[in-house]
Amino acid sequence: MAAAAAAAVGGPQPPQPELPAPGLALDKAATAAHLKAALSRPDNRAGAEELQALLERVLSAERPLAAAADGEEAAAAGGGGGPGAAEEEALEWCKCLLAGGGGYDEFCAAVRAYDPAALCGLVWTANFVAYRCRTCGISPCMSLCAECFHQGDHTGHDFNMFRSQAGGACDCGDSNVMRESGFCKRHQIKSSSNIPCVPKDLLMMSEFVLPRFIFCLIQYLREGYNEPAADVPSEKDLNKVLQLLEPQISFLEDLTKMGGAMRSVLTQVLTNQQNYKDLTSGLGENACAKKSHEKYLIALKSSGLTYPEDKLVYGLQEPSAGTSTLAVQGFAGATGTLGQLDSSDEEDQDGSQGLGKRKRVKLSSSTKDQSIMDVLKHKSFLEELLFWTIKYEFPQKMVTFLLNMLPDQEYKVAFTKTFVQHYAFIMKTLKKSHESDTMSNRIVHISVQLFSNEELARQVTEECQLLDIMVTVLLYMMESCLIKSELQDEENSLHVVVNCGEALLKNNTYWPLVSDFINILSHQSVAKRFLEDHGLLVTWMNFVSFFQGMNLNKRELNEHVEFESQTYYAAFAAELEACAQPMWGLLSHCKVRETQEYTRNVVRYCLEALQDWFDAINFVDEPAPNQVTFHLPLHRYYAMFLSKAVKCQELDLDSVLPDQEMLMKLMIHPLQIQASLAEIHSNMWVRNGLQIKGQAMTYVQSHFCNSMIDPDIYLLQVCASRLDPDYFISSVFERFKVVDLLTMASQHQNTVLDAEHERSMLEGALTFLVILLSLRLHLGMSDDEILRAEMVAQLCMNDRTHSSLIHHIPENPNPKSGIIPGSYSFESVLSAVADFKAPVFEPGGSMQQGMYTPKAEVWDQEFDPVMVILRTVYRRDVQSAMDRYTAFLKQSGKFPGNPWPPYKKRTPLHPSYKGLMRLLHCKTLHIVLFTLLYKILMDHQNLSEHVLCMVLYLIELGLENSAEEESDEEASVCGPERCHDSWFPGSNLVSNMRHFINYVRVRVPETAPEVKRDSPASTSSDSLSSLHNSGTAQVFSLVAERRKKFQEIINRSSSEANQVVRPKTSNKWSAPGSAPQLTTAILEIKESILSLLIKLHHKLSGKQNSYYPPWLDDIEILIQPEIPKYNHGDGITAVERILLKAALQSRMNKRIIEEICRKVTPPVPPKKITAAEKKTLDKEERRQKARERQQKLLAEFASRQKSFMETAMDVDSPENDIPMEIATAEPQVSEAVYDCVICGQSGPSSEDRPTGLVVLLQASSVLGQCRDNIEPKKLPITEEEQIYPWDTCAAVHDVRLSLLQRYFKDSSCLLAVSIGWEGGVYVQTCGHTLHIDCHKSYMESLRNDQVLQGFSVDKGEFTCPLCRQFANSVLPCYPGSNVESNLWQRPSNKSVQDLIKEVEELQGRPGAFPSETNLSKEMESVMKDIKNTTQKKYRDYSKTPGSPDNDFLFMYSVARTNLELELIHRGGNLCSGGASTAGKRSCLNQLFHVLALHMRLYSIDSEYNPWRKLTQLVEEMNSQQGNEEQQPEVPILYHDVTSLLLIQILMMPQPLRKDHFTCIVKVLFTLLYTQALVALSVKCNEEDRLAWKHTGALKKNACDAEKSYEVLLSFVISELSKGKLYHEEGTQECAMVSPVALSPESMEKYLQDFCLPFLRITSLLQHHLFGEDLPSCQEEEEFSVLSSCLGLLPTFYQTEHPFISASCLDWPVPAFDIISQWCFEINSFTERHAEQGKALLIQESRWKLPHLLQLPENYNTIFQYYHRKTCSVCTKVPKDPAVCLVCGTFVCLKGLCCKQQSYCECVLHSQNCGAGTGIFLLINASVIIIIRGHRFCLWGSVYLDAHGEEDRDLRRGKPLYICKERYKVLEQQWISHTFDHINKRWGPHYNGL
Which residues of 1002-1023 are buried (b: 16+ CB within 10 A; e: fewer)? Predict the structure, then answer.
């Protein structure tokens, strides 16, 4: 930096510009040295004064900065050299002075040497990648920089990587925050001991210079700050000032990085009060200083802060360094002023939301002294610096500087105190800020470093009243947005709540303050202080009560709300963060007996606050109808502390419970919420919009449930256990509005509920009771049991991944306590209850994650429907759990039908809560149960199976939890006289079950059927007496019952005086009972609960007498009651189980059950079945059989449909294909018949109505990626590793073509090779055909259909109408048979010579373009499509653009590309034979027709036709020598034989005859073989050549000389020796070409390998043209099998000796003549260019299969290298880096820096590297993205964590490992070009990736 600054001022030599004081032109370094010497003298006053004077001048603040800030930059520029020149000059001076005359860089190095670096302290800003290790961390906020993390040893630890949200600092070396075992190598050594002492003179100058420098900075800040004008945001101005100060602050930051020595000097400077006083008092004569001091005072004032004069406030305190400047004068401090405080601050921020609601600030009597809120006195540079940092809204640079100083312990303490002192001011600035998000992050960035340290937090709490400050500041903050609560009594309510619509809540502005509060409460010592301080607790409860009842919902009864408010997000977030998390923090310190006192304190103030709240809202006993709030934080505080008291502190529950009246009030609002949940799910709140459903879901959602619904239910359980059970039960039914439904009458009127809601509300009420009575979360379960129950509930709903389990299991919201998911118990419980299902693959493409699924015994014993119901956010999850349970029972053979939710045994209740079970033994509940059983039996309306299920569940709960065993004698005494209302005698369920109820009086509407009947009295006289007797049960009204009990409770609990206040039971709405025209009727019932149950059993089983007491057969049953057969089953099982339990509990019940069973219907002899009954039975059986048949048919149909879909869709599994090929099977059919998948007609393809194949054309560069070495390419992960594409197939072919084009005639070059290695066009089909005219109308309809997914119709894209496979063109089928008819296949006996002539003639005929038929038009258009599929650069290789040779080359290369790709799909060879996947769906035959048709339009001049050169001897050899200027043609030995084959075949009229085909192959094989020999001869060295030349020459006259490779090789060598090919052989040549070892076997192998690729392609071609099957074979015999299949081998060729490739040769003309002719061409070329001539002869023909790059095992290695790698274009680190998995290129995703002509880099690269297909790994997300043409899709990730899960966007940051199977699938899809078919979610990328 120093050098840069110097250069800017004036060149490299030490510059001597004018100083502000004229005439002082001094050399800086010399001056510095002189001053240093002067200061080193013992008497250094003179030196000091001189230095001061110099600094005065250099750092003078009379700089036009203020002008610059006001925008008059012209004035600033007046200083010469533009603004900033003077500042740079000042910096230069400072650097020189600090160094004391030496070089600045050397000075830095010298200071660094004295750095006792025990701490890392690296500070980072948002988005930095850091690590957190929970195993090593003491504080949960602990974080490490990547370097320290990787240097330390964290193997096997629970760590994760994360992106910092707010910024942070590395804690390595700080033993307060992390365990020392986790320190990295650098910070393990406590190095302070061996660092030498700092020499005095090294930093002496710094001590003099820095105070002035920092003061100068402060003056700048003072001048630059202008109070924003009335509400105009002035961030611009502030930013401008900050930009100007950038170099200065950076300079300070650099100083901090010099290490400990320099930091301690800075600490001295920043905290020294004397320095500050001297420099800033502003009392000097300097006008400028005065002005700046005034600005400072103005700024203080405008911030609503006073600047106290010392004598007033601080007279009493000694201003020693670092004392807190807060005067806290006890709790009795001033009150009045608070209300009017600084109204300017919150003036108009919410004018918009005012809407007539009066704003009211609540005055509290115990407010702390004003000083907390608005007194600030700065006594050191540090304090004022922080003040300006806050004023300027925490500029990042300043924050980093202040944090960089933290490793200095003394500074840390001073800074923390300063921060606390400014806390209130921070809150005010934050509230006003426009960028509150950024500012919040910066505040937390600082505070988390300060408050995570327990020692420091404790010190500040003690010395600076940290807790008082925080609570007061929070209270203040919330007071600015209070409104009147409308809960309960709208008019007279005195309660105020926060307004959730305010920005403060909506934007979570309170977050940083709450987060700090939670952070300090996590320290035990601080939390203790809080819990002991009564004043603080009162204030805190006051704060919590602001949230009590916020966001009130009122049910809309008439029309739908027009505006759905979304404030509920803010409300839930606020309760969770501001109330619940601090609560959990406090709870974590109340774990042992010794902390009982704390709990008593909290509970006491909580109850007081609740009492105040009830009074404020005017609450008596009835909640207001139709309103609900989900926010009752006071109730929840109370509940959670009660729970903790009983569970951990052994407190007696009754000692902390209030009186009955208070309990009755406490239960009302939580109960109201439960009833409202049922109402919301019953759609009664539908007019309030979706948001109310959102609230109901959030209330039970995993992050909220244990701070909301769990405490609510627990509180209700506590109330229920202490209140009168009858009162409680009747309250529940009244809240749920189903009282009127609970009548014996078949009709009733419900005054408060519509009939359609009755059923679900009744279900809701019963379900609530079941949950209330069976949930044990706070009533005695241990933490591990709770975790297990939660986990089982989640797993039963769905199989889950590890991370979603962690997400769904409610952890303690306060991160500092309780189970952290990932802790030991979590893993051990998980492995106990679940099995891991490793991720599997379906070939169809969808990739699974690793899932956990419940073990069988969990379903068997632990499935708990109650827990599932409690925890489901969506109702469908309950159903899902039941379905899975049903499936388990079917599979394990435990129960075949539809089971009911099983009854689960509960953990025993904690003794404190035993009273809860009284609910099950109270008459009110029994009457309800009896009534419901009766109604269900009588089929009354609005009852469901669910109701019955819950009723039975409650009865069973009652039996399980029955009180002491009742004695049978006592029960027998029970007579009518003991029934007080003739319903039930006692309150024990066991005895009440058998109590018969004869008559019941009911109130019914006059229309009811009961009224019409005669009363039973008139029929028989004796029953009259029983009526007058008390045998008739009374009309039972739950409401009356509740009022009566309520009155009793009130009388009991309060004095008479109090009673006068209570007459007002709410009469605002008609009480249920004042309904119109009700009359009383008497029903004859004569049932008991037992008899009803037995009848229900009959009803459910549909048979008479179905119940038979099991103990009559097997007396054992009564002894061992746990019988597995009763565990799972439906309603029948449940009834049997209940009856068995009832019989077990009392002998009387057992006897009565037996009696009832005998009485119900007299037993009939079983054998006799009447005819009528038989008929119905038969009918039943027949029906059953018919049903089964139907099921079977349906199943069969479904499986057929499935198999069809698989065929249609599945690309990778050909086995199950049903034949839907184009080709018909029988070859003798004269014409192929096609089915059109659109119109459904079948018929041949004709000239005027052609049929076409649905095809997808895509450009492909897969072939070009083949390499010739086996070693796989790895993705580069260090700078050294780079990938160079020289050895790829594409590169080699490219070089070859350009070499040929340099020396030979262009048109001839274009026939000598194939292109399409890159950007070749691949054609694939799904095998379905359609009429081309049908296709056109189909495309039209697609065009008009606007809802297009993922493809563009304008580009011709569509999906196959039948199988929905993606396609973009239609390939016309050539009329005629597909499998060429026998006629063409019959071998003719013509000689080879004749055939050669025929071929030549046929090629010579120009192909006339067929007449203008529809077919030819389509052929033309599809050819156009094929051309447009690939980019121009991949089609045009000729030197003359647009030459016909180019098209010619392109067309036969398309055929080549498709054949080569098919070969690759078959694994690179044809050993497997048969038709393969590619064969099934191949469209090569049709493609050939189209290509041939077009190729025949270009006739090759007969004299240039290579066929001539292959089959005829040319007379005069020297004709070519004549014209030197003209470039020669390509010698035939340089031609690519496979290309020649395709040219020859496509030039022939189609369809081709088999013998012509064979003839062409034979001729070309001779050329190929010769090429192999030539290449072999070039590869070996001189003496080998001589040896072969000799051995071959000897055999030349043998009869089969033409078929012996030795002879031919020797001839080739002798011919070529005539030229210069073998000369010029320097040694370096030899090294380049590896010589071949000389055994005959190896030569034979070389020759075979050279020829094999040609044979494979030829065989494939033959297979497609003539439909012959490919034989399968071993790899070593592939050559011989293919050559005989192609007809190269004479049929009689059977030999024992090893196969020799030369025997396949069949020379059309004498071999030696034609070879010498070919060699002559070579020789004449090598005359001039021997080297190139040689290079062209050595062709690499053995390409390995293409592969993607090999990826490292661990994702971290990729991430660490690439996420910091800079972009090659703009040298910045890209925001979204990506890397290409095909070639390893590093690209920026969406990076605008690398955009070229509106194409972003990834899209561009996909075109250059893959001709439109790109596979990129997104470094920051670990996912792979596929680009295909104009579309893209997210493919998924090939890296999974230890639990088999992806981690998209690296959110969890767990270590990821490569999943080889997934990577194989990806590679497979790339090679087989099936991305389009397999991946479903495509979208357009608009070139923006």
Answer: bbbbeebebeeeebbeeeeeeb
